Amino acid sequence: MDTQLLETQFQDKIDQDIRIEPKDWMPEDYRKTLIRQISQHAHSEIIGMLPEGNWITRAPSLRRKAVLMAKVQDEAGHGLYLYSAAETLGISRDQMMEQLLSGKAKYSSIFNYPTLSWADIGAVGWLVDGAAIMNQVPLCRTSYGPYARAMVRVCKEESFHQRQGYEILLMLSKGTDAQRHMLQEAFNRWWWPALMMFGPSDDNSPNTEKSMKWRIKRFTNDELRQKFVDVTVEQAKILGLTIPDPDLKWNEERGHYDFGEINWDEFWNVVKGNGPCNKERLETRQKAWDEGAWVREAAVNFAEKRKAKTIAA
Ligand code: FAQ
Q1: Distance between Cα 139 and ligand 1 center (Å)
Q2: How far is the CA of 144 from the centre of ligand 1 (A)?
Q3: Which of 1, 146, 298, 308 has CA 20 to 30 A from 271's CA?
Q4: pLDDT tens digits for range 133-155
Q5: What is the rounded distance in angstroms from the CA atom of residue 96 to the CA atom of residue 102?
Q6: Which of 97, 94, 51, 41 is CA-nearest to residue 71?
Q7: How far is the CA of 199 from the centre of ligand 1 (A)?
């Protein structure tokens, strides 16, 4: 069958919301776009464990430690589902890891900011997981089957994460002046980076048009960012927080909040590897990769021995 016809049939399936599965024909660019997005999403989950892992030993109670540990383990699980989904497109785990550690593959800008106080852990849960949910619920309907199915479970867990973050902050908001101050201070640092998680504005987003046509993305970056602002501002009011944006104002006509200009220089600086923690994050992953080499070797040797035994039997 000629490529033109295959492409038409492919787009027809997408337009009818029929899922694309690993063995189905797909345009090379669709495959590449998915590998890029899914692998970067997986890397984000794994790197995203680091800012929170930093607080497991310092969480203020046994309950908080247990909850935080469970959350960080969930993020590892999300990374694994996503790496598996990307592998169905013909890339290996080793190749993806090489792309991450060499700096070729990106991961979410948000994880290059430090977690300086306990309130940051609440802010990460509420804002970072909150932004992740806003972006990922539509991905449960993304056109590629394995990615969409992985997202269903991920979103359920993210929703627990978002609530645990909000609960931490709700407690702080009812606490002492020092606790309320810590809460506002953390919020001031995380608000703008959380808005940046949705990616560049639509007129500077080279991948959006194609990804929307292929229904990989269901909403544009700006649409999701606006939804996030509208929902989060109301939640911030309950916490008694001041939004660190003098331009934030309800727009009656639009039925949405207007908000100030994002500092795109800061965003691109972080994406290009020059954020506050980029170097530290990659060094930590590199160290974990090197120190885990013996485990990978042992697993391969064990699998080979077992295979040899089965053949001999
Ligand atoms: N950071 O043309 P677009 C989480 C890059 S998971 C870094 O708009 P696209 C869970 C983009 O890759 C968070 N780079 O790109 C958790 C592209 O560069 P490339 C991760 C960014 O793909 C919580 C270039 O800019 N979530 O938080 C960012 O259509 C707590 C141009 O951009 C996902 O990955 C950024 N923020 O739209 C874990 C969701 N934004 O690749 C632990 C799935 C853009 O061409 C603790 N991904 N870039 O070299 C997506 O929905 C999309 O990939 C977007 C970007 C919306 C992120």
Answers
A1: 13
A2: 17
A3: 146
A4: 999 999 999 999 999 999 999 99
A5: 10
A6: 51
A7: 6
Q: How far is the CA of 1 from the centre of ligand 1 (A)?
A: 35
CA dist., res. 184 & res. 286, Å (int): 34
Measuring from atom 40 of ligand 1, which residue has the nearest CA? Answer: 199
Distances (CA, A) of 178 to 173, 182, 191, 282: 10, 6, 20, 34
When pLDDT is averaged across residues 159-183 and rounded to a whole number, the result is 97
In this predicted structure, what is the pLDDT of residue 199?
98
Output phi, psi for 74, to 5 deg: -60, -40
45 lines ligand 1 (CB under 6 A): yes
| pLDDT per residue as tens digits for the range 216-229 | 999 999 999 999 99
The stretch 170-183 carries a mean pLDDT of: 98
pLDDT at 19 exceeding the cut of 80: yes
pLDDT of residue 304: 96
Q: Within a 10 A sphere around the Cβ of 115, how many other Cβ atoms?
A: 22
Going from the Cα of 108 to the center of ligand 1, the distance in angstroms, rounded, reads 5
75 C-beta closer than 6 A to ligand 1: yes
Strand (E) or helix (H) holding 227: helix 221-238
Residue count of the chain: 313
The answer to whether the CB of 125 is under 6 A from ligand 1 is no
The answer to whether the CB of 13 is under 6 A from ligand 1 is: no
Closest approach atom of ligand 1 to CA 107: 7
Does residue 17 carry a pLDDT above 90? Answer: yes
